[in-house]
C-alpha cells in the first residue's frame, strides 16, 4: 500500500523555450516554439509522489485566474489532492520562464505570484489537520521562509519524517536546521550548489556529513549527472551512481527525486532503498521536455532498477 505524503511548496505554470544554448547576460536566444507545462517545485514533487503510488495532499497557493484553475485541474488529474491549495485574490498564479539547451541544461526565472502569499498560519492549520494521517512531509522553498519554518517545526515536533528540499536556499534557511533538544531535524536534499550555500566551501562529502551532524538527520546530496550521495550524521553511507538515461530536459529532475523519496519513505521503505528509487526515477524524468512529462509511475521505477 502507498504511504501518505503531504507536500508544501510552489505551484507554477512553466513556459519553456528549447534553444541550442542558454542566453548569456543581455543576450537573446531564439527557439522554434514555446510550450506550456505545469510546474513549481511543490506541485512537481507532489505529482512525482502520486505517480510513485503515494496518497498525496498539496499545500500551497494559486491566483484566482485561469492559470491557477488549469494548474489545479492538472494536479487533480494526476491524483493529487488540492484542498490545501489556497486560491488568492489579487495575485497571479506563479510563472516560470525556462530555457532548455541542446544538452538538457536549463535556466529558470520565477515570478512567485501567489506562492509569495503562502501564509504561515494557514500552512500550520492545514498541516495540523492532515498530520494524524501523514507518513512523510516534504517541503521546498519557493515559498516564504516563515511557511517553510512552520512545516519543519510542526512535522519534526511530532516525529513525522520531514524532507526539506532547500531549493532555493532562502536567506535565514540555515537557522531552521538545528533541531530542538531531543528532536531530529529535517532530512535535507540539497544539490551541490545548495549544499555550498548552506555550509560554505569544502569537499562535498565532508560538508554533507557536517550538515547531517548539525541536523541530526540524513542528508542526500543530488549530484545531477553524477547520481546522489547519501550521508548520515556518522559519515557517508553510499554514493548512488547515475542511472543510464537520455537527457532531453533536466527541469524537474530534483522534484522527481524528492517526490519519489518522500513516497517511498512514507511507504515504510528504508532510507537507502528510497534514495535508490528516487535516483532511478530522476534519471527517467529527464527523457522528455517539461518538468512532469517524464515523471515515471511506480512500475516504471521498479522496472528500471
Ligand atoms: O524544479 C523545476 C521547477 O522550478 C519548474 O517547474 C519551475 O516552475 C520552477 O519552480
Order of helices and strands: EEEHEHEEEHEHEEHHEEEHHH
Largest sheet: 6 strands, parallel
How many structurally independent domains?
Answer: 1
The secondary structure category is: alpha/beta
**What are the segments in which pLDDT stays under 50 over at least 5 consecutive residues?**
none
Biggest sheet strand line-up: 5-4-1-8-9-10
Helix percent band: 25-40%
Tag the structure with descriptive keywords.
13 strands; 305 residues; UDP-N-acetylmuramoyl-L-alanine:D-glutamate ligase; alpha/beta
Description:
It contains nine helices and 13 strands. The chain is α/β, with parallel strands linked by helices. It has one domain (4-19, 33-304): UDP-N-acetylmuramoyl-L-alanine:D-glutamate ligase, CATH 3.40.1190.20. A hairpin with a 2-residue loop joins strand 12 (228-232) and strand 13 (235-240). The chain binds alpha-D-ribofuranose. Alpha-D-ribofuranose binds next to strand 2, helix 1, strand 7 and helix 7.
